[in-house]
């Protein structure tokens, strides 16, 4: 049985205060915020609910966290939380869902179009004051594969339809299987990737997806296909990707996520001509968006309704 | 009454032979091709039908053209033909319709996304090996205005829906008015432009649309709005656009067409920081696409059916 005004702790190294303000503005007045381990330790003993980003998870198994009932992550991916198996089972973990689809799908089509229309050639012609009328390719009729067709993948599929693309999908369950032209289960990766012009990864990182794009799978893709990763860096074996691309396989790789972030300053990806590196920005957790999701969930919590985005620890997301 | 195998002349300074081959492959065997005025003069006396690009229109009013019944342009815009008022009234003029929507709408969204997601910043960060996570804007919720909602504008509207944009439209007739959230007729330009985040011009060039985007209209647009021109260069007063943008008005202009093409090598547009110049390439006339349209129209012609894309010379397109 929840109280109508539960004790909430917001933890975020940079934006804790902004989140706390937003939540208080919605009438939940019992909010503390912490930006460091020490501050978290101070407030945890009375805390029932945590809204957290980069939270020091080891605190959750200590006695100071014994009153914590629910942990809401500010992100969609919770592999960092899941990997800490000491988090007590009685703490409900939730992640943000249905929030990043619009942003991430815009990012994906920004780069698909940038590459297919050959914007770099257009920009270079302008720099040289050169009239250079050429016929670029079209996305229409091309085949896009979306690995992971949850709320993010679903938005990518919807936009792909507007561009008259063929759309394939791979996922672990049959959910949403009907939205794609051809659905593959996770034991059919090779069959899935071999026909694609574009492969977009939106998968969570789990034991099943870790480095699923290894040398063998990358080589199973068409030589002139493009890979886009907006899921998690470790879905790809980065060493394999570098050597495969250096051998001339794949037309381009658009990478927003990396096994280790921030990407090291001397990482080869930065200088590879067909690799587009961005800084984990495709699906930004805005204070407003996350807070709104959290407030909705808070209202469910105080009314004893089922929360949105509950993480299945066995499944891994 | 048409013959089943009419005499056809293909005129194109560069691609006449390729067109002729395509047409012959479809069983219309009486095809000549010309790449110069002199060659055209040689073949015109027996010609009934012309498929032409950059055709020397003055020949059409001469006696050597007395057997010409139909002139099919290889493009969607026919302002160059219309402007020659000496073309005999008994020659039917047709233009390509329903062919460029996919290409041009891809071009439009390439640049809308390039600008809204701030790709230049992402590319620069990569060059500097710099991890630079920032929150870019989204097309979702923004208002796009499409001036000209024929077959090209219609495709732009369809894609804008997939990006959850609000869509306004301006056109001279009520045709397609129902596909936009708010429709304006051509006497309501100022009301149309003032709410827009993005204005895309797909209009034909006529006496009514010539330099319709002059200083006054450009200043009626929101200061941080973007202008995209995929119609005709002379829809815009280019001198006014330069001075208005130099004064800090408008966030960006994406220009694929110009009053004089090719754009002069020393034209200011090339070096203006927020002007994106491309070389009239957004809606390419491919030999295959144009030939296919022409073959369809040829079959209508020999069967005495109404042709597609008939130009109304009074209306101007």
Automatic annotation (TrEMBL), chains A, B:
InterPro entries per UniProt: D-isomer_DH_CS, D-isomer_DH_NAD-bd, NAD(P)-bd_dom_sf
CDD domains with a match to the protein in the record: 2-Hacid_dh_1 (cd05300)
D-isomer specific 2-hydroxyacid dehydrogenase NAD-binding domain segment(s): 110-282
Sorted UniProt keywords: NAD, Oxidoreductase
Superkingdom to which the source organism belongs: Bacteria
A GO term for molecular function: oxidoreductase activity, acting on the CH-OH group of donors, NAD or NADP as acceptor
SUPFAM superfamilies tied to this protein: Formate/glycerate dehydrogenase catalytic domain-like, NAD(P)-binding Rossmann-fold domains
Name the record gives this protein: NAD-binding D-isomer specific 2-hydroxyacid dehydrogenase protein
Species: Neobacillus massiliamazoniensis
Organism taxonomic ancestry: Bacteria, Bacillati, Bacillota, Bacilli, Bacillales
């Amino acid at each position: 049985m929840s109280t109508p005004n539960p004790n909430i702790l917001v933890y975020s190294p940079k934006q804790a205060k902004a989140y706390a303000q937003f939540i208080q503005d919605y009438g939940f007045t019992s909010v503390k915020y912490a930006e460091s381990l020490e501050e978290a330790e101070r407030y945890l003993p009375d805390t029932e609910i945590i809204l957290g980003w980069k939270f020091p998870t080891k605190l959750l198994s200590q006695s100071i966290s014994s009153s914590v009932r629910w942990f809401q992550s500010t992100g969609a991916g919770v592999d960092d939380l899941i990997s800490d198996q000491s988090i007590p089972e009685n703490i409900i973990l939730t992640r943000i869902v249905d929030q990043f689809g619009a942003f991430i799908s815009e990012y994906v089509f920004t780069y698909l179009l940038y590459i297919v229309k050959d914007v770099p050639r257009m920009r270079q012609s302008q720099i040289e004051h050169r009239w250079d009328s050429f016929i670029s390719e079209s996305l229409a009729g091309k085949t896009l594969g979306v690995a992971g067709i949850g709320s993010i993948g679903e938005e990518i599929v919807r936009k792909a339809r507007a561009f008259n693309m063929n759309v394939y999908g791979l996922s672990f369950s049959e959910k949403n299987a009907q939205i794609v032209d051809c659905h593959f289960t996770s034991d059919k990766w090779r069959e899935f990737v071999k026909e694609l012009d574009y492969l977009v990864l939106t998968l969570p990182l789990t034991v099943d997806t870790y480095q699923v794009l290894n040398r063998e799978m990358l080589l199973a893709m068409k030589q002139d296909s493009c890979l886009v990763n907006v899921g998690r860096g470790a879905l790809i074996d980065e060493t394999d990707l570098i050597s495969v691309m250096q051998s001339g396989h794949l037309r381009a790789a658009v990478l927003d996520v990396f096994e280790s972030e921030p990407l090291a300053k001397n990482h080869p990806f930065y200088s590879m001509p067909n690799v587009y590196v961005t800084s984990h920005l495709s699906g930004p957790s805005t204070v407003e968006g996350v807070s709104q999701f959290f407030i909705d969930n808070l209202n469910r919590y105080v009314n004893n309704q089922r929360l949105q985005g509950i993480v299945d620890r066995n499944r891994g997301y």
